Amino acid sequence: MNNFRIIARNSLRRRDYSLRSPPSRSFCNLSQESNRPSYGIAFDIDGVILLGSSPVGGSPGALRRLYDDSGALKIPFLFLTNGGGLPESERASEMTHLLGVPVSPFQMVQAHSPFRKLANRFGNELVVAAGKGEPAAVMSNYGFKNVVSLDEYASYFDNIDPLAPYKKWMTGQEVHKETSRSRENVVSERVQAAFIVSDPVDWSRDIQVLCDILRTGGLPGKEIGPQPLLYFANDDLDYQTKFPTERLGMGAFRIALESIFNRIHDNPLEYISFGKPNPFVFKDAEDVLKEIATSHSNQGSHHFKTLYMVGDNPKIDIRGARQAGSPWFSILTRTGVFKGKDNHPEFPADLVVDTVEEAVDFILTRESAKRSLI
Ligand code: G3P
Ligand code: MG
Q: What is the secondary structure of 146-208 as a DSSP string?
């Protein structure tokens, strides 16, 4: 029985989106000809658009059909991924490069994107950000004023990782350090929260140091204290990359950390998991698609008749779209986690296709048929 306690999830749902400024015309470049589109599309990335960093399922060609000849966005779409580790602007340029279509940072909804809303809450308090890529840069981009990566944080504590001497990839590696910080300041300042921004790389070190932080009220090496807050960007047990079978995800790391923590500590681990299939993620995606759809007109709010979620993981993408309900229509591809012949028994999609190319073809045909009926 998972004996952890979820706290404060409800407050997230009452989110207002006011923090993020609506996209300027140039930002999303929705073409003038697309008059208030009645539908929008959310694409999962791993297993639908990319496998690792390679396009899959004809994704470049499929996405090009959503732009007009001038390269302006014709159909509002975004990427709704449980992945992360880079600021949205950098990830957008990476996607533009990999797919050959102009992707704006506004179209990048990553698992850690909602962390932006927590920046004010922590003010100048020290928080630690873990995971691959640039977790500290991601968080400072969101407005966190006193954030340090777990890599850098651990480097201030001698002997905190007894296995470090055996980690060939670490020996001789300089950890990127923010000049302004002094060791004395960091080791004496209480960590108020830990954010798992993207998939952790060094599990043994990360689990060790996170336990040190979470058991001691944020002061590793000191006496037991109240647990600081802990946030996970997603809870995916596994996901699809280039290797033939699924790879362990952030959810697997969470299970490892939680089972170890609960064995060495009196109180069970408390944490909040973000990311799909949480309903608020789909509510946010709908808000962003509305802003994209109205980016070329100041005609206020927008109503979608249909929002398509194209995903590869039934437990995450399809379950999320089903829970979110109307106007979401779920499409399951066979290029990622799901490889079945028919539909998924527990979380059946509205439609199952082989590739994202087939999904876009279906969507454009269906929507133009609807328009011809008007
Ligand atoms: O780490 C990312 C992975 O868990 C899933 O990514 O794009 O399939 O939601 P995505
Ligand atoms: Mg996926």
A: SEEEHHHHHHTSTTS-TTGGG-TTTTTPPPP--TT--HHHHHHSPEEEEEE-S--S-HHHHHH
Specify if 22 maps to a domain: no
Ion ligand 2: residues, CB < 5 A: 44, 46-47, 312-313
CATH code at 348? 3.40.50.1000
Question: What pLDDT is stored for residue 4 in this prediction?
Answer: 36
Supply the pLDDT for residue 143. Answer: 97
| 299 in any annotated domain | yes
Question: Within this chain, do residues 331 and 356 fall inside the same structural domain, yes or no?
Answer: yes
Q: Which domain holds residue 350?
A: 39-111+277-373
What number does the ligand 1 atom closest to the CA of 313 have?
8
Beta bridge partners of 130: 196
Nearest CA to ligand 1 atom 1: 83
Please give the average pLDDT of every successive group of 10 residues along the chain, which has 374 residues: 39 42 51 75 98 98 95 95 98 98 97 97 96 98 96 95 88 60 88 98 98 98 97 98 97 98 98 98 97 75 92 98 98 98 97 98 95 80
Q: What was the pLDDT predicted at 274? A: 98
Ligand 1 centroid to 275 CA: how many Å? 9
- Asked if residue 309 is part of any domain, the answer here is yes
238 CA to centre of ligand 1 in angstroms = 8
Ligand 1 centroid vs 317 CA: distance in angstroms? 10
What pLDDT does 21 receive?
A: 46
Q: Check: pTM over 0.70? Answer yes or no.
A: yes
Distance CA 103, CA 89 (A): 9
User: What is the pLDDT, as a whole number, of residue 174?
Assistant: 58
Q: What are phi and psi of 196, to 5 degrees?
A: -90, 95
- How many domains are there within the chain? 2
Same-domain check for residues 195 and 257: yes
Q: Are residues 107 and 117 in the same domain?
A: no
Instruction: Name residues contacting ligand 1 (CB within 6 A).
Output: 44-47, 81-83, 199, 234, 236, 239, 249
User: Last residue of a domain, which of 214, 245, 273?
Assistant: 273
What is the C-alpha to C-alpha distance for residues 177 and 113, in angstroms, rounded to an integer?
Answer: 24
- Calculate how far, in angstroms, residue 335's C-alpha sits from the geometric centre of ligand 2: 9
**19 domain residue, yes or no:** no
